[in-house]
Amino acid sequence: MDGTLVDTEPYWMASEVAIAAAHGGSWTHEDAMALVGSDLLVGGRVIKQKLGLSQTPEQVVEMLLDGVVARVTESVPWCPGARELLAELRAHDVPCALVTMSYQRFVDPILAALPAGTFATVVTGDQVSQGKPHPEAYLTAAERLGVRPEECVAFEDSPTGAASALASGARTIAVPNHVEVPARPGLLFRTSLRDVTVDDLKTLPDRDTSQADLR
User: Fold this and answer.
1) Structural domains of the chain, count
2) In this predicted model, what pLDDT tens digit does every residue of 41-99 receive, in sequence order?
3) What is the pTM of this model?
């Protein structure tokens, strides 16, 4: 979701900077970039340590969410081509799952801005025990859709997310946004979701599922 369907990374970064400022610390662009695509609790631990906060990592995550939920409720910053691709998939009866390390209360305002039924299931970071780059979230999504991961196509914008999707066995398309995504076996690239159609997805090459070794 973050950075792939909606360009909310600036919202997270602004919340991180605000927390640092409120507690007399500093938070750099490099600090923010290092957390892109990470499990929220991982980010909470990093921010707590970096800023010397007394709050628990869980409390830091809630502070972050307070900031980003307020921002996304005011305006959902869609990535180019995101809503159009989702609409085309819906028109072709392609079941879709949203897989994100964000928590449900941040996902809700974004889902509310989409037509009902856009996603058949939603897997959030507070529903899994192991965050990305572990494949649990993608494996859970495929199971809920009633298909094998190898029958799925995953879209990601970060190295962490791409590693998670590839490890699940899904054919994976990287659409880099704020961070570079290094090339790796089985990983396909597009410059924008505007470059993707349902017909394109039907012709994607099969991938070597032996890459899925983190299960």
Assistant:
1) 2
2) 999 999 999 999 999 999 999 999 999 999 999 999 999 999 999 999 999 999 999 99
3) 0.81
The answer to whether the beta carbons of residues 190 and 171 sit under 8 Å apart is: no
Query: How many other CB atoms are found less than 10 A from the CB of residue 17?
Result: 18
Contact of 40 with 128, CB cutoff 8 Å: no
- C-alpha 81/C-alpha 170 separation (Å) is 22
- Output phi, psi for 129, to 5 deg: -90, -25
Are both 163 and 95 inside the same structural domain?
yes
Last residue of a domain, one of 47, 74, 101: 74
| In contact, 41 and 131? CB cutoff 8 Å | yes
Q: Residue 151 belongs to what domain range? A: 82-211
- Interval 146-203: pLDDT, tens: 999 999 999 999 999 999 999 999 999 999 988 899 999 999 999 999 989 999 998 8
For residue 17, give the CATH number of its domain.
Answer: 1.10.150
Q: How far is CA 160 from CA 19, 26, 109, 182, in A?
A: 24, 25, 24, 11
